[in-house]
Here is the input.
Amino acid sequence: MKENLKSAFEKAYGSPAQVFAQAPGRIEFIGNHTDYNGGLVMGVAIDKVIMCAVAKRDDRKLCFTAAKTGEKVYVDIDSIAPQKRDHNWVNYPLGVFKFLIEAGLKADKGFNFIDMSSLPSGAGLSSSAAIEMSAALALSKLYGFDTDLKTLVRAGRKSENFFVGMPCGILDQGVSGFGKKDAIVYIDCLTEDFSNFPLPHGCKFWLFNSTKKHALVDGLYADRHRECMKAAEILSEGGEKRLLRSFGLADLEKAKGKMSEVVYKRARHIIEENGRVLKTKEALLKGDIATVGKLLSASHKSSRTLFENSCEELDFLVDTLAHFGHVYGARLSGGGFGGAVMALTDSEFSEADAKEVSKIYEKKFGSAPLVFTCTAGDGAKLC
Ligand code: GLA
Here is the structure.
C-alpha cells in the first residue's frame, strides 16, 4: 500500500511525500458506551490500517486530496474550521491538526495530505479513528512536534467531538493509538490510562456487519449520551458533578425514584458493564476464556434490554452464533442501532462456519452480512 500511496501523492502534488504514517481500525471487545461515562473499556486494534502521506507546502494552505477521485479541498491555515457538506470528509484530519496546534504544535507553513485504506469501509471498524490517528502521527512528525501518544489520541477524539460532531468517548482513537499485536487495549476512561495485556493464544475475531444502519443513528447515539449525563447529574445531586463511573448499583437504587425508567435503565447498563469489563480482565489474565465468552454474551443482553441500542438483525446474529461450536461469545460492537456483531472464537471456527452463519442470516433478512476476520495488530506508527 505504501508504494501506491507514494505514487498517488506524487501524482496529486507533483513532488514526493515527506512523512508516512499508518493507524489501524478497531474492534470494541467489551464496554459498551462506557467510554464517555468515564468508565472501563477494552478494544483490539486490527491488522488492517489507513495510511497517510504528508509534506509541507511553501504557503499557508492545507490541501487534502481524495485518493479515489482526485478531488482537492483547500483550507487556510489561519482560519481552520469544520468543513460543510461535500467537503466534510476532510474534517477528520483537519480537526486533528487544529487540536494539535492547541496542544502546542507550531505550524509555520501549510501541508499536503492524502490517505489510503485497507480497512473494509462501513464494516464498523472505526475507519474515522484510523484516519485521525494516522494524521495525528504524520503531522506531529512533519512539524517536529515532540509529544506523547496520549496527546495524539486526545486530538483525535476532539476532532471527532468538535469537527465531525460525534459526542464519542476515547475508545476508538485510544485503541487505534495504543494497539499492540496479539494484545487487548484496556482503557480507564476516567484517568485516561491505557494499558495492554496479551490475548489468550489462538483467539480469532469475526465481525458480522448487518449492513443495517438506523436512519437516526447519530441522533440515537447522542440521545444515549444525554440520558447517561442526566443519570450522572441526578446521582451527583448536591455534590460535585461526577460521571456515571463514580457510582455503584447501591447509589443507583437509592436514587431510582428521582429518575425516569429510561434513565435508570441506561445508568444500570453502564454501571454493570463497567463491572463486566473488570471481570473480563480478570478472566483473561487467568486464561479463563469460557468466562470471557459468558461476559461478552451478558454484555450484549444488557445492550439489548437496558441500553436498547441493539436491533433485530444484531440480536439474530448473536443468537445464531450461540449455536455454533468454537464460538466463545458474541456481542454488538460499537455504537449499535445496526452495525456489527463481534464473535470471539477459537482458531477452529472456519470460513465455512462463517458462511453458514451468513446463509442463515440471509434467509431471514434477504441480504448477507459483511463478514470479516482478523487478529490483533499494532497501533499507529510511522511507516
Ligand atoms: C462508538 C464511539 C465510541 C464508543 C462506542 C460505544 O464506536 O465512537 O466512542 O462510545 O460507540 O461503546
About this structure: Residues 28, 32-33, 35-36, 126, 168-169, 171-172, 334-335 surround alpha-D-galactopyranose (CB under 6 Å).
